[in-house]
């Protein structure tokens, strides 16, 4: 059961091949068996999940038959879940029992999905290896000496190891796509504003988006369908109709033009990944698409730009963690200054502190124009690159990550090298456009991800291309051998 | 751009994060490295480019002036570190 | 040396919206602590702001009332600082693109002149919560403060003037004008005792004739007209004393202590702040359509200046009376209703400004709390005008209405038998009785000169009015007396 797709599980439930309770039990058993190795979950909601599963079975018995009813999933521990610890991977929120549900948690519960638990993540989603978590690193099911990627590393490992059939993630600079690439999953970052951010703990407000992490593009379409849509509680949520993503999956790619940016194949890309990506691109040609060399001339500025905008926004988003109303508070504060500085010293890890300091610096008097304003101008140049490119192409393709999964501890002491892991994903967040990563082969037994980038609000186009690719290939069907 | 240990003390104070004195130098070094990387931006002339705050250049939607929230003090204060008589307690605020 | 005081005011006006500026929590004043602080107000992780339409409209109305430009694409910024009454660690405010641009208003001064004060801008922002300083102690006996976040997120407009005022009197007149504009517009209750209108004063002094500004201080915590006046006078004098002693003014934030009547530096604001303003990424620019501005302009109520001019022209009131009667919309409406009932605007104005306001003042009541309605007062005046009662009796009737005895002037007059006596026979009898009872005075009168006679006539009138318990028609008494004594 744990290797089936959401679509297959939905069929199984509809045909009563198994109940939601049996399915949920199965995943809970696998979590109990394998989570100690992988550390993919921070919190497992056994009782809650079984109760929800039984409820789903009763609803199905009484005639309810919505597609996702009774299917389990895992939520990244960045989404507030009512009555459940929501830690965001941080000591700061280790004791935080959220008193409300994030909009997408509500939406997926309304769709009948069963929450198995909350997955591990880089602290406040700041990281590309899941090594900054207060709850310890997550291991990659394909090679447990390697990182699963980050920041949605727990979600990626859980799905890749069959500890959940699908999971939610969030993506600020690649945090859905890069771990999906490193764990052989399909992961989609929707257009900024497509999915509500309400109840999703903020890292960088103008970049953060929630999205699905699944085994197949078809599953990603199903899960996105349930997550997407306007939310009046989020001012940045876009009020535009959500199309039927499953309906467009089978459109032909004949005549589609796929842009291949030369900047995505330049210095920094490992040969092993480059080979697999070129093979994948050739597959699209076979399906009738045309490849076109393009340029995104400001790509090299996306990491510098991002490492101003994201830390700047984060530095003030994280000011609310002050030990007054919830979360960690230092013992016996001497005075107000001591309460603040010690609570935050103890509650935040090194990478979070580092980004808060960089962001504070970038916004401080005398540096604002040179850093923050400058980065906002560069951001427009990056967005304009995409606008220009999409005048000539229907979508853009390239590697998701320059390298396959790397060893635990390999880059953790070198932030700048770690930041380069997101060199192909970050521009997408700055531009706000949708993008996904799909399995595109193996390099030394480690998965490689292909990234497809679409026009604003055209998630359907890239899901369509991804699905067509998955009809021709079986990379996405490969399962981490140690957990099969 | 290199930041000095005293710059770090200043921004750590603004951010209300205590940094142990023996760590200040290494933090300053790390942050200088990041800022040096970020400084690649300075090579580009952007004077004619308007800043972009939101990827869609969207505008704000307005909410009707209606009271939609009810009192949930008990639930909210159940997760508070320290309260008394419905108030959040902090070390004395000096004006 | 002759010194000149230069004052600019920052006025915070709480908008009387039902819900908060960025959340659906209630803004009602006086609720139990933290019962009106919702998830957004508490800055729970993951919560997001959504802007209240009414707050935007209120700000636009204010802008239109002070002849200001309305910003077509207004931006909210985060003002970052740590304080326990500020849950997010930043205040959502406006810096570079405030909703109301430069404008101006005119203030009236005691000498009858008026003066234009320029408004630099006005912006929308959220209020903070409150720190309460009594009560608890921690393990080490350190004092604790309690934080109430009910007020956090209440919409404010902050109105920033240019440094155009030159005296405490002008500052108070400016503040009173702001108060009357916002209450006329109905965008605030203007209740200073509840903090609905608060003021910080930027004060500097310079030698008269100097055109550069001196170093200024910002004095906070000015929550009544009287305190503002006193605080500015005291702060200006302090600065003059410092300068005359050869000292220098430090640019700083000071707190006004009304009990000691002094200003002193605020300890918490000692360090130079770096607020790191930047556009709030959770809120988008507010696009304001021309059509909305036009619509709000068309529905703007008559504002104090227009009303004052109309009261002078239409009712023939003095500038002074018109000023007093238009200070608040409630008073102006009261005056117009009383005038309609009385049929005489000047009498209504006199009764309101002297009798009614005097009494309200003595009792420490706000005008809104008057127990005598406009209709009651108008009815009373009507009875003076038709000679049913004298002015003197009218004061008794007014007192009865104030005490709630009787639902209108007529019922009081009837119940107490206060109707004026105008029956010539009855009055003649009273005159005869008084003359007969005072033969010596009658003799003196007859031998006196004109000047003395006038004085003595007053004596007889007084005696007769006394005998009639004030109800004799004074005109008829005079007429009869003259006839009998001179006849």
Note the topology.
The complex is a heterotrimer of chains A (484), B (95) and C (487).
Chain A: H1 6-14, H2 20-38, E1 41-44, H3 46-61, E2 72-76, H4 103-110, E3 114-119, H5 153-160, E4 167-171, H6 177-182, E5 186-189, E6 209-214, H7 217-227, E7 257-261, H8 271-286, E8 290-294, H9 302-317, H10 336-347, H11 350-363, H12 369-389, E9 395-399, H13 415-420, H14 426-431, E10 435-443, E11 446-453, H15 459-472
Parallel strand pairs in A: 2-3, 7-8, 7-9
Antiparallel strand pairs in A: 1-3, 4-6, 5-6, 5-10, 9-11, 10-11
Chain B: H1 5-14, H2 24-38, E1 62-63, H3 73-77, E2 83-84, E3 87-91
Antiparallel strand pairs in B: 2-3
Chain C: E1 3-14, E2 51-52, H1 53-65, E3 73-74, E4 77-80, E5 90-93, E6 103-108, E7 114-126, E8 130-132, E9 144-148, E10 155-161, H2 168-185, E11 197-207, E12 217-222, H3 225-244, E13 253-257, E14 262-265, E15 278-279, E16 286-287, H4 290-298, H5 304-315, H6 319-325, H7 329-342, H8 345-363, H9 374-385, H10 391-403, H11 409-416, H12 424-437, H13 439-447, H14 450-467, H15 474-486
Parallel strand pairs in C: 12-13
Antiparallel strand pairs in C: 1-10, 1-11, 3-16, 4-5, 4-15, 6-7, 7-10, 8-9, 11-12, 13-14
Helix pairs in contact in C: 2-3, 5-6, 7-8, 7-9, 9-10, 12-14, 12-15, 14-15
What descriptors fit this protein?
heterotrimer; A: 484 residues; 8-stranded mixed beta sheet; 3-stranded mixed beta sheet; 15 helices; B: 32% helix
Provide structural commentary:
Chain A has helices at about 5-15, 20-40, 45-60, 105-110, 155-160, 175-180, 215-225, 270-285, 300-315, 335-345, 350-365, 370-390, 415-420, 425-430, 460-470, and strands at about 40-45, 70-75, 115-120, 165-170, 185-190, 210-215, 255-260, 290-295, 395-400, 435-445, 445-455. Helix content of chain A is about 40%, strand content about 15%. In chain A, helix 9 (about 300-315) packs across helix 11. In chain A, helix 4 links the parallel strand 2 and strand 3. The mean pLDDT of chain A is about 95. Chain B has three helices and three strands, in the order H-H-E-H-E-E. The longest helix of chain B has 15 residues, at about 25-40. Chain B is flat, with a radius of gyration of 22 Å. The model of chain B has no long low-confidence stretch (mean pLDDT about 95). Chain C is α+β, with helices and mostly antiparallel strands and about 475 residues long. Chains in contact: A-B, A-C, B-C. At the A-B interface, helix 9, helix 10, helix 11, helix 12 and helix 13 of A face helix 1, helix 2 and strand 3 of B. Strand 1 (about 60-65) of chain B pairs parallel with strand 2 (about 50) of chain C.
């Amino acid at each position: 059961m744990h290797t089936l797709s959401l679509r297959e599980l939905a069929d199984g439930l509809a045909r009563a091949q198994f109940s939601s309770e049996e399915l949920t039990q199965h995943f809970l058993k696998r979590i109990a068996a394998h989570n100690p190795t992988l550390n993919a979950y921070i919190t497992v909601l056994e009782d809650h999940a079984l109760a929800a599963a039984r409820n789903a079975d009763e609803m199905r018995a009484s005639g309810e038959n919505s597609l996702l009813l009774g299917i389990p999933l895992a939520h990244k521990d960045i989404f507030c879940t009512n009555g459940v610890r929501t830690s965001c991977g941080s000591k700061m929120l280790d004791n935080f029992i959220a008193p409300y549900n994030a909009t997408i948690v509500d939406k997926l519960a309304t769709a009948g999905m069963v929450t198995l638990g909350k997955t591990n993540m880089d602290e406040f989603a700041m990281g590309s290896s899941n090594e900054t978590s207060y709850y310890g690193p997550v291991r990659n099911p394909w090679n447990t000496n390697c990182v699963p990627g980050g920041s949605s590393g727990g979600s990626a490992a859980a799905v890749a190891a069959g500890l959940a059939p699908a999971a939610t993630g969030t993506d600020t600079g690649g945090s859905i796509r890069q771990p999906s690439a490193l764990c052989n999953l399909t992961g989609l970052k929707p257009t900024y504003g497509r999915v509500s951010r309400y109840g999703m703990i903020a890292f960088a407000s103008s970049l953060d988006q929630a999205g699905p992490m699944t085994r197949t593009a078809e599953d990603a379409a199903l899960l996105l369908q349930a997550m997407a849509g306007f939310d009046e509680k989020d001012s940045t949520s876009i009020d535009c109709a959500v199309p039927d993503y499953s309906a467009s999956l089978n459109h032909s790619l004949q005549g589609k033009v796929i842009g291949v940016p030369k900047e995505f194949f330049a210095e920094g890309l490992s040969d092993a990944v480059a080979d697999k990506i070129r093979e994948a691109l050739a597959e699209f040609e076979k399906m009738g698409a045309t490849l076109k060399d393009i340029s995104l001339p400001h790509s090299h500025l996306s990491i510098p730009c991002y490492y101003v905008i994201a830390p700047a926004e984060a530095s003030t988003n994280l000011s609310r963690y002050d030990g007054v109303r919830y979360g960690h508070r230092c013992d016996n504060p001497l005075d107000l200054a001591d309460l603040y500085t010690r609570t935050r010293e103890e509650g935040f890890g090194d990478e979070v502190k580092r980004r808060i300091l960089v962001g504070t610096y970038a916004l401080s008097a005398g540096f604002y124009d040179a850093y923050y304003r400058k980065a906002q101008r560069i951001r427009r140049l990056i967005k304009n690159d995409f606008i220009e490119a999409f005048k000539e192409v229907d979508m853009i393709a390239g590697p998701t990550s320059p390298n396959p999964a790397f060893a635990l501890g390999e880059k953790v002491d070198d932030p700048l090298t770690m930041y380069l892991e997101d060199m192909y994903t970050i521009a997408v967040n700055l531009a706000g456009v949708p993008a996904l990563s799909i399995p595109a082969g193996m390099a030394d037994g480690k998965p490689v991800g292909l990234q497809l980038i679409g026009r604003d609000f055209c998630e359907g186009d890239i899901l369509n291309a991804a699905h067509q690719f998955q009809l021709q290939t079986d990379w996405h069907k490969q399962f981490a051998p140690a957990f099969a | 751009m290199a930041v000095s240990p005293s710059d770090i003390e200043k921004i750590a104070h603004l951010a209300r994060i205590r940094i142990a004195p023996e760590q200040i130098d290494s933090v300053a070094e790390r942050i200088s490295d990041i800022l040096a990387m970020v400084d690649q931006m300075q090579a580009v002339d952007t004077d004619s480019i308007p800043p972009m705050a939101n990827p869609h250049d969207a505008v704000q939607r307005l909410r009707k002036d209606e009271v939609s929230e009810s009192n949930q003090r008990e639930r909210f204060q159940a997760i508070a570190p320290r309260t008394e008589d419905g108030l959040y307690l902090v070390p004395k605020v000096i004006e | 040396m002759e010194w000149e005081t230069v004052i600019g005011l920052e006025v915070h006006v709480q908008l009387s919206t039902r819900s908060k500026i960025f959340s659906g929590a209630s803004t009602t004043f006086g609720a139990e602590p933290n019962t009106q602080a919702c998830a957004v107000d508490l800055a729970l992780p993951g919560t997001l702001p959504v802007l209240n339409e009414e707050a935007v409209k209120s700000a636009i109305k204010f802008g239109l009332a002070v002849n200001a430009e309305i910003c077509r694409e207004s931006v909210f910024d985060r003002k970052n600082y740590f304080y326990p009454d500020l849950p997010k660690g930043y205040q959502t405010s406006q810096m570079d693109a405030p909703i109301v641009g430069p404008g101006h208003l005119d203030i009236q001064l005691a000498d009858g002149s008026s003066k234009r004060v320029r408004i630099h801008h006005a912006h929308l922002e959220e209020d903070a919560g409150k720190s309460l300083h009594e009560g608890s102690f921690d393990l080490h006996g350190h004092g604790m403060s309690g934080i109430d976040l009910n007020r956090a997120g209440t919409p404010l407009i902050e109105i920033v003037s240019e440094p155009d005022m030159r005296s405490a009197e002008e500052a108070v007149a400016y503040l009173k004008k702001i108060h009357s504009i916002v209450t006329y517009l109905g965008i605030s209750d203007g209740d200073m005792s509840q903090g609905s209108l608060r003021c910080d004063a930027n004060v500097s002094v310079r030698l008269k004739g100097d055109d550069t500004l001196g170093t200024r201080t910002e004095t906070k915590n000015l929550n009544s007209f009287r305190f503002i006046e006193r605080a500015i006078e005291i702060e200006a004098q302090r600065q003059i004393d410092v300068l005359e002693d050869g000292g220098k003014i430090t640019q700083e934030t000071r707190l006004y202590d009304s009990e000691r009547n002094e200003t002193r530096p605020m300890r918490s604001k000692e360090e130079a702040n770096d607020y790191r303003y930047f556009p709030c990424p959770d809120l988008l620019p507010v696009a304001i359509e021309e059509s909305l501005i036009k619509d709000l302009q068309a529905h703007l109520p008559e504002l104090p200046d227009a009303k004052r001019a109309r009261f002078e022209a239409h009712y023939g009131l003095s500038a002074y009376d018109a000023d007093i009667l238009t200070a608040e919309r409630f008073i102006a409406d009261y005056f117009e209703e009383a005038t309609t009932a009385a049929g005489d605007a000047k009498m209504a104005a006199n009764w309101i400004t002297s009798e009614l306001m005097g009494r309200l003042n003595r009792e420490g009541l706000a005008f809104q709390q008057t127990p005598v309605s406009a209709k009651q007062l108008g009815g009373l005046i009507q009875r003076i005008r038709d000679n049913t009662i004298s002015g003197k009796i009218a004061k008794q009737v007014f007192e009865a209405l104030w005490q709630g005895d009787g639902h209108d002037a007529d019922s009081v007059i009837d119940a107490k038998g206060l109707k004026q006596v105008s029956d010539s026979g009855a009055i003649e009898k009273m005159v005869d009785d008084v003359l007969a009872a005072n033969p010596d005075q009658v003799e003196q009168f007859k031998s006196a000169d004109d000047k003395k006679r006038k004085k003595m006539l007053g004596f007889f009138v007084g005696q007769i009015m006394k005998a009639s318990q004030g109800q004799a028609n004074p005109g008829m008494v005079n007429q009869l007396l003259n006839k009998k004594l001179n006849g």
